[in-house]
Design goal:
The structure holds 2 protein chains of 2 kinds.
Chain A (H helix, E strand, L loop, with lengths): L6 H9 L6 E7 L4 E7 L3 E2 L3 E2 L11 E13 L2 E14 L2 E13 L8 E5 L8 E5 L2 E5 L3 E5 L6 E7 L12 E4 L3 E5 L2 E5 L1
Antiparallel strand pairs in A: 1-2, 2-3, 2-4, 5-6, 6-7, 7-8, 9-10, 10-11, 11-12, 13-14, 14-15
Chain B lengths: L1 E4 L8 E9 L2 E8 L11 E5 L11 H7 L2 E5 L1 E7 L5 E6 L8 E5 L5 E4 L12 E10 L4 E9 L8 E7 L5 E9 L8 E5 L9 E6 L6 H11 L3 H5 L14 H9 L8 E6 L5 E6 L12 E5 L2 E6 L1 H16 L26 H13 L12 H16 L1
Parallel strand pairs in B: 15-18
Antiparallel strand pairs in B: 2-3, 3-4, 4-5, 6-7, 7-8, 8-9, 10-11, 11-12, 12-13, 15-17, 16-17, 18-19
Helix pairs in contact in B: 2-4, 5-7, 6-7
The chains are: A mainly beta, B alpha+beta.
Chain lengths: 190, 389
């Protein structure tokens, strides 16, 4: 029964009524990861850096955040963020190390886990969940990681083709199997 | 792993380079490569059902002609699902043009065109392009990066939030800052939670009438608009390029305020108030109460600890923007005359006392902190209803 004298009942009346939907948006601007909160239908609050802003320049090149993905695991909202290093030699950019980090959304002070992914995956263009694990689609390679430890379980699908080694979009979707498209083909994984 | 088709080069010289899942279908964007020799125009977005082709080994030509449905032709980019089986995608009118409109496929038949209505460049010789579409199905909000191009240069792209009006046109409702890298550097993750990540902040609340002529002039100059225009800015005509800058910060300082930290929020409500939220560094989180003040024009209307002012700042933003959301409150406060402020842990009777005090003192808006957003807003609703009566 609602008593209407305590704030909790007003919360039920007005809050649960759907007027104040509470949704958070995590955005990645390449060099930083920001947080935007939306309350209601079109009210946005400005971004706040929630992870340290990356230095664009390092000794050998630069680094940036590449991809971002939110997921729920073990009853908690978590964030998967990839950090990408690029090396520059003689004004030519070379892909460097990718580091993936998993954060607890309630505590972004330090990652829960992290791991380095093969430098072959220089660009991760899509992330999705397959079963209980996370699949990363990158530069003609798909890696499977553990959502708890961030460790690579397997790197089973390689579409790398020397002739078409472009890192142009690689994306995938989970629907009755996985279908991947890359710059040089369409594939189905069973 | 079954190889469905080596689409590029070998047969017809195209590349398939984007795929999304929406409902029962998958959508694949295919671009004809520059070296293509085939005369058929196969650029566009194609819809397939994976179940239809599960056991087939088909050539790329068969794949495109017999097992997919073309839903969009031409120069398409950045597709994203709508959560109901359809997709949104950006498109360009012709080759070498920038994608400058958003189109929609409902998953069954017609493609409906939506344009972004209110993004107009001040430079008639420049163009804008749209990318990185991301649709929030829960709030029916489209995110995208918008970049302005001219013959001389391209601007840094902006991350914007858009909603459709009654005519189905996407209108930009907020510019959310630099997207920085247009093609691949921006991604958006949407989580539905009550995660408490509110920044520690303080607020500077100003109205155009409260600003000095010099400040107005500085802001107008910064925004490259006339001072008259500045006075009548509304959310509807707010330029997406409007961003807080050092110049605005300096202008506020000249008016006697102390926004000594990074200015990170600007918004305008229907009455023309400007709300500036200023970050406070983490090291001040445990600082004395005097560290954070809430200003209305030249009056300090609230002083509190930075930790409390975090929710305080957002509470005020919520209260001010309720009306622009068109939710419940038709009477927008002309001034924040009274603030009901509660420290966490105080009994509910204190809430009521604060509200009554605020009403008796002529307050026309309210803000409560120390409780959750929902509770604060609920109590604000009570306050405003009582005030209206």
């Amino acid at each position: 029964m609602l008593c209407f004298f305590c704030p909790f009942c007003w919360f039920l009346v007005l809050g649960v009524g759907g007027v104040y939907a509470d949704v958070a948006y995590i955005t990645n601007s390449g060099r930083s990861v920001n947080y935007i909160k939306q309350i209601g239908s079109d009210t946005f609050h400005e971004t706040q850096n929630i992870l340290p802003e990356l230095s664009r320049n390092t000794e050998d090149g630069y680094e940036s955040y590449e991809s971002i993905f939110s997921f729920r695991h073990d009853g908690k909202d978590k964030l998967l963020v990839s950090k990408h290093e690029k090396q520059i030699e003689n004004e030519v950019k070379y892909s460097g190390k990718n580091t993936f980090m998993i954060y607890d959304m309630q505590d972004l002070s330090a990652p829960l886990a992290s791991s380095d992914i093969s430098s072959v995956m220089s660009y991760v263009d899509d992330i999705t969940v397959f079963g209980s694990n996370i699949l990363l689609a990158g530069d003609c390679v798909i890696a499977e990681i553990n959502p708890e430890t961030c460790e690579i379980i397997d790197q089973p699908y390689e579409f790398f083709d020397a002739e078409y080694s472009s890192y142009y979009d690689v994306a995938m979707s989970v629907h009755k199997g996985i279908i991947c498209s890359s710059s040089y083909g369409i594939w189905k994984i069973q | 792993m079954d190889r469905l088709g080596n689409v590029t080069g070998r047969v017809i010289g195209i590349s398939a380079n984007y795929i999304v899942s929406s409902g029962e279908n998958l959508y694949i964007r295919i671009n004809k490569s520059d070296t293509a020799t085939d005369t058929d125009d196969i650029r566009g977005i194609y819809m397939i059902n994976p179940a239809d082709i599960a056991e087939l080994e088909i050539t790329a030509y068969d794949f495109l002609t017999n097992y997919v449905t073309k839903i969009a032709e031409g120069y398409t980019y950045s597709l994203c699902p709508d959560g109901k089986g359809g997709i949104y995608y950006a498109s360009a009118a012709e080759e070498y043009s920038y994608p400058d409109k958003i189109e929609y496929w409902n998953g069954r038949s017609n493609s409906i065109v939506y344009a972004i209505e209110n993004y107009e460049s001040e430079n008639i010789n420049s163009y804008y392009s749209i990318g990185n579409l991301k649709y929030d199905t829960r709030n029916k909000t489209m995110f995208a990066s918008i970049q302005e191009h001219s013959y001389a240069h391209s601007s840094l792209p902006l991350l914007v939030a858009m909603k459709q009006n009654d005519s189905g046109i996407f209108k930009i409702i907020r510019s959310l800052g630099d997207a920085y890298e247009f093609d691949s550097g921006t991604s958006i993750a949407i989580i539905e939670s009550n995660t408490n990540l509110l920044p520690t902040a303080k607020i500077e609340l100003l109205s155009p009438e409260d600003l000095s002529p010099e400040t107005l002039s500085n802001i107008a100059s910064e925004l490259s608009i006339s001072e008259d225009t500045l006075k009548f800015l509304t959310p509807e005509n707010l330029s997406p390029s409007l961003e807080p800058t050092r110049a605005i910060t300096d202008a506020i300082k000249q008016d006697g305020y102390e926004p000594v930290y990074k200015l990170n929020t600007i918004t305008v409500n229907d009455s023309g108030y400007y709300v500036f939220a200023v970050n406070i560094p983490d090291e001040l989180a445990d600082s004395p109460a005097e560290d954070v003040k809430l200003y209305l024009a030249d009056r300090t209307i609230l002083t509190g600890s930075s930790a409390k002012s975090s929710s305080l700042a957002y509470g005020l933003l919520n209260a001010l923007e309720l009306d622009s959301m068109g939710v419940k409150f038709r009477t927008l406060p002309q001034k924040i005359l009274a603030v009901a402020f509660l420290q966490a842990g105080q009994p509910f009777s204190v809430y009521l006392a604060r509200i009554i005090t605020a009403i008796l003192s002529g307050g026309s808006s309210c803000m409560l902190t120390g409780a959750s957003t929902a509770i604060s807003l609920s109590l604000c609703a009570v306050f405003l209803m009582l005030r209206k009566k």
